[in-house]
Write a structure and sequence with these properties.
CBS-domain, three-stranded mixed β-sheet, alpha/beta, 4 helices, 39% helix
């Protein structure tokens, strides 16, 4: 299974990333997250390069600090964005996400443009499927000899 952790994180991307532009209100960003059943939105510039991320944790901070929901997203987004190139390994993603205590990581291409977002859940699902495949393979070996 350890060799499976060398799989590229780009392979974990399941759908087109949900993004917002600078100037989007916090309220609209939260509505987008809710309607898409996602835990974060990536804020992109005009070239589709990520410039920030707004997560469920940021929503809690906004509410706790009574920040007006009509404020622009850039006032509360996380600017110290941690991104991974799509060619990076799952192992690298685990290491980075664990070190920085983050649950969502934007994935970029070589051109710096956003390709998708992976979550810790995506990684767990991949590891579960690798374990299941390995278990099935081991059972086959037992039966075949």
């Amino acid at each position: 299974m350890v060799s499976g952790l060398s799989v590229n994180v780009g392979s974990l991307i399941k759908k087109t990333p949900i993004t917002v532009r600078l100037g989007t209100s916090i309220r609209d960003a939260i509505k987008i997250m809710y309607s898409n059943n996602i835990g974060s939105v990536v804020i992109v510039d005009e070239d589709f390069r990520p410039v920030g991320i707004f997560t469920e944790r940021d929503t809690l901070r906004v509410i706790a600090k009574d920040i007006p929901l009509d404020s622009p997203i850039e006032e509360v987004m996380s600017r110290n964005l941690i991104v991974l190139n799509a060619k990076e390994s799952i192992y690298k993603a685990i290491s980075v996400m664990s070190t920085h205590n983050i649950r969502h990581t934007p994935i970029i291409g070589d051109d710096g443009k956003l390709i998708g977002v992976i979550s810790i859940r995506d990684i767990i699902d991949k590891i579960k499927s690798m374990i299941a495949e390995e278990a099935a393979s081991s059972e086959m070996k037992v039966f075949t000899g």
